[in-house]
């Protein structure tokens, strides 16, 4: 994952039942585009994309529950994630937006569109499969061996071991001087468990324009890519030479694909 870039973004928040939900608004007078990150990430990773799309597009990047600056939650189901997204849209008085998501965020985006089609004008799905995890395997099992916090930053980095390079630039210092990850490992493992399943019916439930961006070394098998394009009206695809973390490992190509799609709307 790339380093955080916030630049001119304004951080704001709303409180839902005592739980803080934080987001970055890259401002501007352009059309609204709401971006949803994947597991273990946060909204600030969309900084380069916001720069590439501005000023025509006003990108708003949510720190989804349990990630980044947003508080932990007790529920990591689709209902929970989608309720947060709806609350943010209502808070910002955005009736209709383009939704862009990566991985977990992509699944939340097309699930939200299936439930609230009147609020989504287009979808950008980056590496968000429709069928996965049916074998029971959880790719985030490694998290269960990681510490959530430590007395010092150095101690936390040491405790993270081989995983440290992926998260060391995003560690948070608590008010008491201790340090923590920008997510709780057990929360993320639970969230991953609850996102597994067959979601093809939700993906095909809407017909608004959609772009499916997938990597040559991504997690969506070629046959699933074909099915996602052929079985959903209004869908086009773009394959990039990248891995699953497509918008941070191939930022220029990703931004170009998104921009080209948005010009067709």
CATH superfamily: Alpha/Beta hydrolase fold, catalytic domain
CATH class: Alpha Beta
CATH architecture, please?
A: 3-Layer(aba) Sandwich
**Shape category:** globular
Into which percent range does the helicity of residues fall? Answer: 25-40%
Strand arrangement, major sheet: 1-2-4-3-5-6-12-13
**Beta-strand residue percentage:** 15-25%
Pattern of helices and strands: EEEHEHEHEEEHHEEHEHEHEHH
Mean pLDDT: 95
Please give the domain count.
1
SS content category: alpha/beta
Taking the sheet with the most strands, its summary is: 8 strands, mixed
- State the end-to-end distance: 30 Å
Instruction: Find the CATH topology.
Output: Rossmann fold
Oligomer: single chain
Radius of gyration: 18 Å
How many β-strand runs? 13
Poorly predicted residue ranges: 1-6
Q: How many separate helices?
A: 10
